[in-house]
Amino acid sequence: MRKVCSKNVLDEVEFSLAFISLYVSFGLIGKLKRNENITKVNDIVVYILIFSISLWAGSSVSINELLSLVLYSVLGSVIIIVVTYEIGTIWKMRGNVKVDSRKTNQLQYKYGIPFLLGWIVGLIVKPDLAYSTIIDVELLALAVFLGYSTANSMTIKVIRGSLSKGGISLLIVIIGNLIAGVIFHFIGMGSLKLTEIIAMGSGWYTFTGPLVSTYYSPYYGSIAFLINFFREQLSYVILPFLLRIRYNPYSAIAVGGATSMDTTLPLYALLLGDDYVMTAVFSGVTLTVFIPIFLPLMLNLP
């Protein structure tokens, strides 16, 4: 497999500093003044980003690469879910779980449309654009709206209510990501640095995919997007099964990663009950705050 890097080291450092500065600055602004209309723009930026990375991928990836992309993505998502859950079973717990199968089968599709549309247009039209520059601009826009949108999520109440339990889930997420990244590397998915970045996305596909795409290639960006996308989606399918075999709320929350604060939160409310909702929120919010800071810094590692 190839590795295509669109930036030199200095460019990566400058971009990382710019992204982090915008994210933190607008996070502070969001703490001081809230405007829900502005937060809605974040979704629009995300849709555009997903379309851009898919367009780039579709215009530059061959059919053979497409097949390996799907294979690696599905396999990778299952690996990271199972590994993360098993790591969490170190913390022994007892309990039973009742699952509402109708509700756990409800999946989130709102990001699937721009993703598929970008691929289709890219494969058919093959537009020749300055994708790296375009996605750079979109990522910086994401830093602005993302910082503003997530500023109000972390409150004193959330921190105090779930610090200990959420801390355990966070530890499981980190260890599970690290081990999964090593496995990704050994099955030929890419360099160890690349696979660790993909795994450390922790389910945040709308950020990890474009970031990896910019610094490596649209092929790897698509893998990063899909592995983290399926991590969220397959949580609804696999977690009820894993909880039946070995019940552990900390493991279950860790599997959701950054999504435990929003898209997979209803799943935790159903599977674990209200006692663990705050824990899921704390874990997800903490990851949401630190992933946009941590992943750009990982890009600058040797």
Automatic annotation (TrEMBL):
The keyword Secreted does not apply. It comes from the Archaea. Keywords: Membrane, Transmembrane, Transmembrane helix. GO terms for cellular component: plasma membrane. The chain crosses the membrane at residues 15-32, 44-63, 69-88, 109-125, 131-148, 168-187, 207-230, 250-270, 276-299. Pfam families: Lys_export (PF03956). The keyword Transmembrane helix applies. GO terms for molecular function: L-lysine efflux transmembrane transporter activity. This is Lysine exporter LysO. It comes from Sulfuracidifex tepidarius.
